[in-house]
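Here is one chain, start to finish.
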Amino acid sequence: MTSVAVGHAQDLVHDDHHAKPSGWRRWLFATNHKDIGLMYLIFSFIALLEGGTLALLIRIELFEPGVQFFQPDLFNQFTTMHGLIMIFGAIMPALVGFANYMIPLQIGASDMAFARMNNFSFWLLPVGGLLLTASFFVPGGATAAGWTMYAPLSLQMGPGMDMAIFAIHILGASSIMGAINIIVTVLNMRAPGMTLMKMPLFCWTWLITAYLLIAVMPVLAAAVTMLLTDRHFGTGFFNAAAGGDPVLYQHVFWFFGHPEVYIMILPAFGIVSAVIPTFSRKKLFGYASMVYATSAIAILSFIVWAHHMFATGMPVTGQLYFMYATMLISIPTGVKVFNWVATMWRGSLSFETPMLFSIGFIFVFTIGGFTGLIVAVAPIDIAVHDTYYVVAHFHYVLVAGSLFALFSGTYYWLPKWTGYMYDEKLGKIHFWSTMLSFNLTFFPMHFLGLAGMPRRYVDYATQFTDFHQIATIGAFWFGFSQLLFLYIIIKTFRGKGQRATAQVWEGAEGLEWTLPSPLPFHTFETPPEVK
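Its structure:
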């Protein structure tokens, strides 16, 4: 990060004399980016608890072989809705919440470009979330076709499938509006002197992510719309009996689905790239290469989608192409990991909770990246396709990757948001509890997958019992660890802690640290000058 603001918190004008909405109107009609960002974060945490509860129900069932508590169809509903709620309800809204809260502060803007559209894009989320949740209670229950909703299974589901399709349309519209807002804000509302190559990396990663969202969310909308017309209007896009092709659905879905993985991880890279230099007391190593690597990841993410489809019987030339393209995308990702480690190298490190979560992120994300490289190899992928090896791989990338970065960012900026320091001791307990329980849950799944345990199965052979029991114990430990996180957040927001200064962290750079803590309702009414 290379931007330095002129003046300090007491010198810049942050007008608070405007009429400030209060009560329920402040939230229902919110146009202030900080309020909307906070609502996104609250919504995403509620979705995290809901999706996490479904995960624990799955793990209870899998504690022992045999069907214990849930019939196979209900179990499949749990696995499907767990995926949909976690991706579209928890991770993506949480990252958009960070974007809303932090991007205007980091570029010296007074707010997001389209404040009312920002409000609308948030209020679409509870509607989509309620539609998804309510689908459990219609005849036939929620969709049980897996979060990918593959045809032809999704063509045979009850009305819960239609509710999921409409929910995805609504949540997708919210994402597109959020992305437009972020692009316009970053390109048009930077403070004088804040060139693109002086922006904090978090703004860069979100700018690139926003372009990805605009490119791929309409593709997902097209895929689920074709599902809808196949189901109700007599078309035959994916119905083999009507001359359609179920594999076509996979191509369309994964053309959205693979860039989507990077939509959920690139902003996490941005958070980690803010935290590690602060607690290393050094500049980020190789800032420009980080920007170019992020751009390379985004571009390459469009040419690797069919590595999810090696088991569909594609020609060997297609397998070779997607195999090598997938290996190629690991290079810019490796650049990022190298740069983070190089930033810490010979730095004056301290290990506050945000730094612990960022180092934890590097560790677990690298494991997830390596297992991704392994399943990129087509012959290996065909062997472990749809086994628990794949479950382990993407949970290491998404739970460990996205969630650890979100925790890191929350602890990092929480004193700035609330004006109070969080409880450092409890934060470290939360980190170690989360780190140990996460690995206890998901590392054994690699062995389950290599031994041939298929994913999404309600029952399994006796030889898989031990690893399933270890994973279930870890999952409950992991889930209840997040209640400690909730307690820490509530305690801090209620002002039970030491008062935070404007700077908060020694060595933190960027415009947000020139503002008082807690942040005033209106910030940067007079844009700061950036040298």
